[in-house]
Amino acid sequence: MDNAPGMTTKNSDNTPSPEQQLRDGMAQRLIELGAARSARVVAAFRSVPRHLATPDVDMAKCYEAEFAAVTKTDSTGVDISSVSAPRVQAMQIEQADIQPGMNVLEMGSGGVNAAYLAEVVGEQGHVVTVDIDRDVARRAEDFLKATGYRNVTVITADGEHGVPDRAPYDRIVVTVQAADIPPAWVHQLKEGGRLVVPLRMRGMTRTVAFVRDGERLVSDGFELCGFVPMQGAGENRMRMVSLHEVEGEEIALRLDGHPEPDAEALRAALGMPRVEAWSGVTVAGDESTEHLDLWLATALDNLPLMAAKIAARKRGLVASVSPIGVPTLVDGDSFAYRTARPTDDPERFELGAIGHGPQGNKVADRLMGEIQVWHGDHRKHRAHIEIHPAGTPDEQLPAGRLIDRPHTRVTITWP
Ligand SMILES: C[S@@+](CC[C@H](N)C(=O)[O-])C[C@H]1O[C@@H](n2cnc3c(N)ncnc32)[C@H](O)[C@@H]1O
Q1: Distance between Cα 69 and ligand 1 center (Å)
Q2: Is 124 buried (19+), middle (13-18) or exposed (0-12) by CB count in 10 A?
C-alpha cells in the first residue's frame, strides 16, 4: 500500500484498501452533511490517514464525521485538547475558502487539520500550526512527519501573539474557543484575508468567518460549533453558578460577562412551581435554534445559559437540557428558560418559556415575547458580526448588541 500525502491507498489488486474505504465513506458523509463542498476539500479528506494521529482509537471511529478524539483533559475534568471532528474541520476549511498556494496559520494543533490544510494549499502553499502545549505540538510534528507533509511548520507558543515570522497570512484558522480577538491576529492577516474563529459571544460560540477590512473584521457567515477553551494570555472561561447540587443531577448557570446572579434566590426559585408561556412559533424537530438563541442573546441583557444533567430533567427539575446550556433570562429572584413542546404535527415543536420564582410569569412572558419578535422580524435573516479595536468610539460602531472584551468591541446586528 502507498501512503504518500495526497494519494488514496489501494490494495495490490487495485481495489481501495479498508482504510481508504473508511476515508471515502467519511468524505461522502461530509458531502451529505454539507460540510465538505469543494473538490479540493473532499480530496483532502479522502487522502489524510487521520487514524495515525490517534493510534489508541478504533480506526473506524476515527473516520466518523462527528467523532472528536479528546487527547488531553485538565485537572478539573475540562477537555483541553482534541483532534476535532471531521465535520467541524471540513466546515472551517470551507469557511476559510483556502486556495492553492496560500500561506495559512492554524491556531491549535493536532496534526490532522494541518494535514488537510496542507493538502488544500498544495506544494506551493505553506501552513504554520501553533499550539501552546508542547506535547500536542510534538505529537502533531510526529504525525506530519509520518504522513509526509513537508509544507507545514509546527510551533510551540501561545497563539495570542500569532506567529509573526511567517506573517502575513492569507488565512488564519483558529481551532480553539476564543472570547476575544488579539490584535496580532488582525495585523498578521492580509487585507481582505479571512479569519475563521470559534468566537464566544455572551456564552454562545459560533465559528465565524471574518474578512479583514483595515482594523476591522466583518463577518461573512458563521456556523454552530463547540471547541475546547483557550489557554494562555487569552484564557477567559465561563463561570458556573450552581442552582442544584445533588450529584448526577447538577444544574448550573454558565456566565459569560453576565451580572452576578442572586444564586440563593434563584435556587429557591427553582424549587417553586413552574409557569409556562407558549409563543405559537414552531420549529421542525431537526431545526437548529442557533439563530434564535443568538437573537435572544442580542435582544436580552441578562441571558446566561443553564446547563443541566439529563437526570435533572428525568426528575422533573427542568424541562430542557443541553450540554452547552439553554438560554435563560434572569431577573433578580426569578428566571425563565427557552423550551419546546410537541404539537399535533409530529414533525414540529412549539417554542416557549418556562419560568420560576416570584416573577416567573413576567420573565417567561418577556422571553416568549422575544421568540415572537425573532419569528416576526428576524427569522429569515442572519446576524451580522463585526470586530473593532477596543477604544473605538460608540458612534463609529454599528447599532446593535455590543460586547466589550479586553482587545475588541464585538457588535451583533440584525437586518
Ligand atoms: C481542538 S484542539 C486543536 C485541534 C486540531 N486543530 C486538529 O487537528 O483537529 C485545540 C488546541 O488548542 C490548543 N490551545 C489552547 N490555547 C492555545 C493558545 N493560546 N495558543 C495556541 N494553542 C492553544 C490546545 O492545546 C489544543 O491542543
Answers
A1: 13
A2: exposed
